Amino acid sequence: MKENQQNKSILLAIMAITIVVIVVGTIGYFAFGNHEEEIQGQIEVEEYRVSSKVPGRILEICVKEGDFVHAGDTLAILDCPEVNAKQTQASGAEDAAAAMDEMARRGARQEQIRGAYELWQQAQAGAEVARRSYERIQRLFDEGVVTAQKRDEVYATCKAMEAQEKAAKSQYDMAVNGARNEEKKAAKAQVTRAQGAMQEVKAYLNETVQIAQMDGEVSEIFPKVGELVGTGSPIMTVSMLDKVYATFNVREDFLANMKVGDTFSAFCPAFGKDVNLKVYFLKDQGSYAAWKATKSIGQYDLKTFEVRARLEKPLDGLRPGMTLVVKK
């Protein structure tokens, strides 16, 4: 009697274990055995960062996160007193170079020209007197009245006065002609250099007012009003919502229908419907990305690729970060 009860208990235990195994196997089959592979991706958007070429302090932020801006809209204003000081320096250098160029082009002043002319006339008169004196002394020398020594002294004086006349004439000509061509070119080059420096400062001044380069939505603002930003430091990010795309990380054994130029459909949970996509970019993720390791039974390494695709038709309300699901 006792032995029959033990056998019956063992039989019930075996039946219970069998039922549990069958139930677990059935659940596993429906839950995992017939599961369809899925590739999950998300919507991304092209964006650009607004930054300045000059360091400064944020004076005003003219937009808020989420605002839609158009190309040319003012986004932020920076305070940069160093650039204002450089503008003053460049303006002074430009004025000085322009004055030097004008002086070179105009030449000597009228007063200087008249003074040089009067000196020439004076030297000319002196040379004429010296020539006449020499002529008289020469006649007296021919008559034997004066000595050769006296004649030579007067002759030397005559030649000296003629040389003085020529020097005065050259000074007058130089005053009339003004600066040399080389001096005029040098003055002109200084003006060009000063103008270039002024244009550079104006370009830096333009950088103190940041404007939108393209239409888009302000997705993120980094500094606060009053904070300092360095050269090239990002001030804000603008997302171009008309340039959205989908990105997926796909293992290479699932790339059969995801080559560049291929089209496929993906389910968008946010809208509860499928969208059509066309692949335009394909690139391996490198050895650091997720990959399927080699096993001992004839399998091989499988790398992961980044796949980017654009929507064939625009979808209103599509936002960056929304999920897309592709069933394989």
Question: Any overview of this molecule?
Answer:
The strands form two sheets. Strands 1, 3, 6, 8, 9, 10, 11 and 12 form an eight-stranded antiparallel β-sheet that branches. The mean pLDDT is 81. Helices cover 45% and strands 27% of the residues. It has 328 residues and is α+β, with helices and mostly antiparallel strands. Strand 9 and strand 10 form a beta hairpin.
Structural class: alpha+beta
End-to-end CA span: 61 Å
Number of helices: 5
Beta fraction: 25-35%
Global morphology: rod-shaped
Order of helices and strands: HEEEEHHHHEEEEEEEE
For the biggest sheet, the summary is: 8 strands, antiparallel
Overall residue-averaged pLDDT value: 81
Low-pLDDT segments, ≥5 res: none
Helicity range: 40-55%
Global Rg: 48 Å
Q: Would you report the number of β strands? A: 12
Keywords, please?
single chain; 328 residues; alpha+beta; eight-stranded antiparallel β-sheet; 5 helices; 12 strands; rod-shaped
Layout: helices, strands, pairs:
Layout (H helix, E strand, L loop, with lengths): L1 H32 L4 E14 L4 E6 L6 E2 L4 E6 L1 H26 L3 H34 L4 H30 L3 H27 L1 E3 L4 E6 L6 E2 L4 E18 L11 E6 L4 E12 L19 E8 L11 E5 L1
Helix pairs in contact: 2-5, 3-4
Give a concise summary:
The two termini are 61 Å apart.
